[in-house]
Amino acid sequence: MSVRPTQTFHPAAWIVWATCAGFVAFVTTDPVYLVLLIAVSWFVHASNRATTASDRSFRVFLIAGLVALVLRTSLAFLGAVVPSIGAVTSATIAFAFLEGLRLATILVVFGTFNAVTDPFGLVRMAPRRFHEPALAAALALSIAPRTIASVGDVREAQRLRGLPVSGLRSLPSLAVPVLERGMEEASTLAESMDARGHGRGRRSRYRPQRWSVAAIAVAATAVVAAAAFLSASIAGWGGLHPATAPIAWPQGDPRLLVAIALLATPGFLRTDGAP
Amino acid sequence: MTAGAIRYEGVSFTYPDAERPALTDVGVALPEGTFALAAGPTGAGKSTFLRAANGLVPHFTGGRFSGRVTTGGRDTLEHAPRALADVIAFVPQDPAASFVVDRVEDELAYGMENLGVDATHMRRRVEEMLDLLDLAALRDRSVRTISGGEQQRVAIAAALAAGPRILILDEPTSQLDPQGAEDVMAALQRLVHDHGMTVVLAEHRLERVAGWVDLALGFDRGRVRAGDPSSVLRELGVGPPVARLGRLIGWDPAPLTVRAARRAARSLQLVAPPAHGTSSNGDGRLLAEAKGLTVRYDGRPALRDIDLRVHAGEIVTVMGRNGAGKSTLLGALAGVRDPAAGTVTVKGRTPRPGVDAALCPQDPDRILFTDSVRAEVDATLHARGDVGPADPWLERLGIAELAEHHPRDLSAGQRLLVATAATAATDAPLLLLDEPTRGLDPDAKTRLVRFLRARAADGLAAIVATHDVELAAAVGTRVVMLGAGEIVADGDPGSVLGDSYVFAPQMTRVFGPGWLTPEQVAAAIA
Amino acid sequence: MNVAVETPRVDPVVRPPWLARAPRVRTGLLVVANLLGLAAFFWPFVVPSLVRASDENHGGDGPWILVALAAILLALLFLELGRGGLGPKTVALLGVLGAAMVALRLPGFVAGFSAMFIVVLIAGNAFGPSFGFLLGAVGTFASGLFLGGLGPWLPFQMVAVGWVGAGAGLLPHGNGWTARIAWLAGYGIASGYAFGMIMGLWFWPFLTDGSPLAWSPTAGAAMNLRHYLAFYAVDAFVWDSFRAVGNAVLVVVVGRPLLGALDRAARRMRLDVI
Question: Residue B80: closest CA among chain C residues belongs to which residue?
Answer without folding.
Answer: C10
